[in-house]
Amino acid sequence: MQVKVRGQGARRWITFGAIGFGALFLVVGLILAGVSVSFLANAERARGTVVSLEWRTDHSGPSRRTRVRDKSMAYPVVEFTSADGTRRTFRDSTGSNPPAYEEGERVEVLYRAASPEDARIDGFASLWLLPLVFGGIGLVVAGIGTAVALATRGRS
User: Fold this and answer.
1) Which residues, in sequence order, are CB contacts of 130 under 8 Å at separation 6+?
2) What is the enclosing helix (H) or strand (E) of 69?
3) CA angle 24, 38, 20 (to 5 degrees)
4) Is the pLDDT of residue 80 over 50?
5) Which terminal Cβ of the chain has fewer Cβ within 10 Å, N or C?
6) Local confidence band at 67 (pLDDT 50, 70, 90 cut-offs)
7) CA-only gyration radius of the chain, Å
């Protein structure tokens, strides 16, 4: 399928649309990185244990005990004791297939002292995956749009 773009005005709209889209994704990536940095700055640490893996076929559906090949993801369910001595359990927001953690595995948990229910596993994916995905897509798309704009600038 070929898309024919006629006229200099349409090319400019597409080019600057790509730059705007990329810049938006880059800003979202930076905001998410700032949220992770803020979380890390105020987080308490605790040792936790992966007590189970919750298999889910999508991010909003009910948990499943059976593994559906290549469609389900395992979310670690972690138990830890907060500084006030209360045992807490949470499901990490980052799932994977194959599972990144095994049942019984010891993990480092980060949580806010004021709200211990806001907890995450101290791992790359939990803290930095979304900022990198959004920021990376933003850089690539804005970079391509900028390169096209600079390359076609001399022709107009």
Assistant:
1) 29, 32
2) none
3) 5
4) yes
5) N
6) very low
7) 22
